[in-house]
Specification:
eight-stranded parallel beta barrel
């Protein structure tokens, strides 16, 4: 199992660097940085500064999109980061979430996303591609960049299985939800003749850890809200209650409070429901969730750090969860 630390928020750029340095020191495998213009610092500035301040940890976009970012700009930025970091760049791409919705745009449809993802993957591998009728190719000599497709929808999950090096699941952390999402990923992989086991299967979820488990869940509740709006409409594993709750939150969702602690649209989510969508609670509770994710076939867990004590949550992951997965017996599993 690999572990990543994700960061999203209107923090100063220097704080992103501090978090990345701390994540590397604490034994994380990857750092993932959000991309919501105006609400977060510029993605490429943050990734470059984090890469410059670290030596080992992978630096990923968690995630960028194919709407506000032209695919050639995305590919060029990833190649530059890969060259500079010595091959430590990971590229997470989605159809468009907060970066798109906050400026009144629509997400890409599955067909457009598939086309753009294929072009991005070719370009960051150093190959040429036809873009707008013109053959283009990056001139930056860099190690190939692994491409991760992030999704909360069945069609794009299948596209991830078909084309991407990894999939980033934003569907919750309950086993029945993860398994249902992976069914779509694996079907896409099988249709294209790929081995589903070749994919890095990432689960990303809001995370807060503390001795008061209920308070930690409350600090990550806003993540459960955005995930519910995306999966409630289609996931059978959630049942009627999840569908109704997702629809209710979607109707009153405020993007200016996106995954902010205390977001008004998240208050109606019961603790029991929230726990199915977040990596939050006491360290023992989160460790149990990680074990269940591993049993589902997840190979990479990304904790998007939330709440009032991000540094403390990072430390808790390092001290109380990661060590169990660094032993030979757990590594074998």
């Amino acid at each position: 199992m690999k572990f990543g630390a994700g960061f999203w928020g209107p923090f100063p750029l220097g704080r992103y660097v501090e978090y990345a340095v701390a994540a590397e020191r604490l034994g994380f495998d990857s750092v993932w940085i959000g991309d919501t213009q105006l609400l977060t610092p510029d993605l490429y500035s943050a990734m470059a500064l984090c890469a410059n301040a670290t030596a080992r940890i992978k630096i990923g976009s968690g995630v960028t999109n194919t709407v506000t970012r032209d695919l050639t700009v995305t590919a060029g930025g990833a190649l530059a980061l890969s060259e500079f970091s010595g091959g430590r760049c990971l590229l997470g791409v989605g159809v468009g979430g907060s970066a798109v919705s906050t400026v009144g745009l629509g997400a890409d449809g599955a067909a457009d996303f598939r086309r753009k993802l294929a072009l991005i993957k070719a370009l960051v591998a150093g190959d040429s591609a036809m873009v707008n009728g013109i053959e283009v190719r990056g001139k930056i000599r860099a190690p190939r960049v692994p491409v991760y497709a992030a999704s909360s929808s069945p069609r794009v999950l299948a596209i991830a299985g078909e084309l991407a090096d990894g999939v980033i699941l934003n569907v919750g952390v309950a086993p029945e939800l993860v398994r249902e999402a992976l069914d779509h990923v694996y079907e896409g992989a099988r249709r294209s003749g790929r081995d589903p086991k070749s994919l890095d299967v990432v689960v990303i979820a809001g995370s807060a850890i503390g001795p008061d488990g209920a308070r930690a869940v409350d600090e990550a509740r806003a993540w459960a809200a955005i995930t519910l709006t995306r999966v409630g409409a289609w996931m059978a594993g959630g049942g009627d209650e999840t569908r109704a709750l997702g629809a209710a939150i979607r109707a009153r969702y405020r993007w200016d409070e996106h995954i902010s602690a205390g977001a008004a649209h998240a208050r109606a989510i019961p603790d029991e429901t929230a726990r199915r969508f977040v990596l939050a609670g006491t360290a023992a509770e989160v460790a149990q969730t990680v074990r269940r994710l591993a049993e589902c076939g997840v190979t990479h867990v990304v904790a998007l750090l939330m709440g009032s004590n991000i540094a403390g949550t990072l430390e808790a992951w390092s001290r109380e969860i990661l060590p169990a997965w660094r032993t030979p017996s757990m590594a074998g599993r």
